[in-house]
Amino acid sequence: MKKEKEVQKNTSMWNKFGSNLQILPIVIAVLMVGGISVTFYLAYIHFKHVTYLLPYISDTGTIPPESCIFGFVLNILSFLLGVAVYIKYLHVEEICKKHHISKNCSYNKVAIFVGGLTVLGINLVANFQETNAPVVHWSGAILCFVAGSLYLSAQTYIYIKISPVLGQRKTTMFRIFLSIVAVSTSVICVGTGLKALSEFTGEDVTKWQADDGGAKLHQISTNSEWICATALLIYILLFYKEFKDIVWEGPKIILVERITALGSPNITAGSSPKLP
User: What start-end ranges are recorded for coiled-coil regions in this protein (predicted)?
Assistant: First the structure.
């Protein structure tokens, strides 16, 4: 009886989450803005670990203690974003299945793949600081923004294809705009960033000075990164309306067989042990 009540309680908790998915994009936005604001304040204003006006986002989380906060926040953020990407995948699959338009939804698998790469990139940025593992960190950053912008593009393509069913014409036009912004700024960010790094003659990339070489290109790159991140965040926030109309029942667990102590009978699904 006690176990049945616990199961009902856990099921009720899952149902509350599954029927209130619209809070997920908001939590992602609040966590991202709040976390970066804290690390920016600590790195730029309080400790002065970075000295130029607009650093890379990850530059604000390179040196302790802000690196601890930055890594912690981004690890949670990557998990939540992964959940959002998966829910969006299921949402599109359900629309295609319901309206028999699977031919126009083939990009859904592409979208979840590049969405997964985006999550991986965020994890690499979170756990490999620029000053400790620059190659891995930069690879993660490039993966995050390039794959992220491609995710937006794939989603936008899907929206265009299913717009006769889903509607949202004005919102789809806005999504096209955000996708163009994200793709263009990610390319500019990576291109100018790599070029600036090749021209850098200073000692510390987190304290890039005007006479260190490649300063203008570096500033263009950092500005582009912030614009790209903003476009990505706004796009995720647009999931709010759709997630509001989704109920996620979640995965089901079925016990097939339980391995018991030697000499005891196996307990299989639908059976119970015989008591002496």
Answer: none
Instruction: Return the pLDDT at 80.
Output: 97
Tokens 């990139």 found at: 121
- The mean per-residue pLDDT over the stretch 248-253 comes to 71
1 is a domain residue: no
pLDDT at 208: 84
The answer as to whether 147 is a domain residue is: yes
If one counts the domains in the chain, the total is 1
Three-class DSSP category at 257: strand
> Is 249 inside any structural domain?
yes
> What global pTM score does this model have?
0.84
Residues in Cβ contact with 99 at an 8 Å cutoff, skipping those fewer than 6 apart: 162, 165
Task: List CB contacts of 44: < 8 A, sequence separation 6 or more.
Answer: 50, 55, 60
Domain region containing 32: 11-268
With b for 16 or more beta-carbon neighbours within 10 A and e for fewer, the 222-251 pattern comes to bbbbbbbbebbebbbebbeebbeebebeee
